[in-house]
Write a structure and sequence with these properties.
The chain is built from six helices and 15 strands. By secondary structure, the protein is an alpha+beta fold. It has a single domain, classed as q2cbj1_9rhob like domain (Jelly Rolls, Sandwich). Strand 9 and strand 10 form a beta hairpin. It is globular and about 50 Å long. The structure holds 2-oxoglutaric acid. 2-oxoglutaric acid (AKG) binds next to strand 7, strand 13 and strand 14.
């Protein structure tokens, strides 16, 4: 990463680093994800959501997933997986080795995280034809620290373009406020509006990325992704890091009471 890259990141709130991950490592993650899927047995949280007990099971399955390896289905296509999350980087040996490679630690420090900690990991499938869109959001909505520090490392495991649902971003909009927060109010998980300011008028850009590209996302950058309307999959692996010096909100949705956070 050059000083021009750092300046572009400060200006835009994202950075596209092509060729950051070698193809052999993309292969290894895809093979491991396929093994995990082959061993996955759907439970009560995956069956019909009609009864109260099933809704409760699904809710608990999500709430505990910050410290677990859990499988989430596409809302519109319940026989297809949307993602696996959210502690692959701690609990699966292949994802752990990959995620703790020093190239990610070095990059995080160069981006200004003094004590980078790995908080969340997701294997994102975005299957051909059925992978759904992801709405505009800021990652700090889900992973809030004071001061804000969450930083996303999104890795394309397939070529990603407008047709198969690449990331979209609003350049420079990371300089605005955090709009919403998602977390606990007592026992309830709620979304609270912190600042009603609309997203700025900036023209969204499509962050098309070849396989092996790493996209760095500032935690306040509004980003989204389009549905996969193509016959091609769009797999990606996403890591979210925070700075250990910042205070992690104790009412964020993602809590890991039995799994202390680790760095590199
Ligand atoms: O891959 C996607 O479609 C969205 C991912 C995302 O929003 C993230 O990793 O923060």
């Amino acid at each position: 990463m050059t000083s021009a890259d750092l300046a572009a990141y400060a200006r835009d709130g994202f950075l596209v680093l092509e060729g950051f991950v070698p193809p052999s490592e993309c292969d290894a993650l895809q093979m491991r994800a396929a093994e995990l899927v082959a061993g996955f047995v759907p439970g009560p949280a995956h069956t019909a959501f009609s009864t109260r007990d099933q809704r409760h099971a699904r809710d608990l399955y999500f709430r505990e997933s910050g410290g677990a390896v859990r499988f989430f289905v596409e809302e519109g296509a319940p026989d297809r997986l949307n993602k696996i999350g959210h502690a692959l980087h701690d609990l699966d040996p292949v994802f752990e080795r990959f995620s703790r490679h020093r190239r990610f630690g070095d990059l995080a420090r160069r981006l200004g995280l003094v004590e980078p900690l790995l908080l969340q990991s997701m294997y994102l499938f975005k299957h051909a034809h059925v992978g759904a869109e992801v709405d505009w959001h800021q990652d700090a909505t889900y992973l809030r620290t004071d001061p804000p520090s969450v930083t996303g490392f999104w890795i394309a495991l397939d070529d990603a373009d407008r047709d198969n649902g690449c990331l979209m971003a609003l350049p420079g909009a990371h300089r605005g406020p955090l709009r919403q927060w998602f977390g606990y109010e007592g026992e309830e998980l709620v979304t609270r509006t912190l600042d009603p300011a609309p997203w700025p008028e900036a023209e969204p850009v499509a962050l098309e990325a070849r396989r092996g590209t790493l996209i760095v996302l500032h935690g306040l950058l509004p980003h989204a992704s389009t549905p996969n309307r193509s016959p091609r999959p769009r797999h990606a692996y996403s890591l979210h890091l925070i700075d250990g010096r910042a205070e992690y909100a104790t009412d964020n949705w993602l809590q890991r009471p039995d799994l202390p956070l680790r760095g590199f």
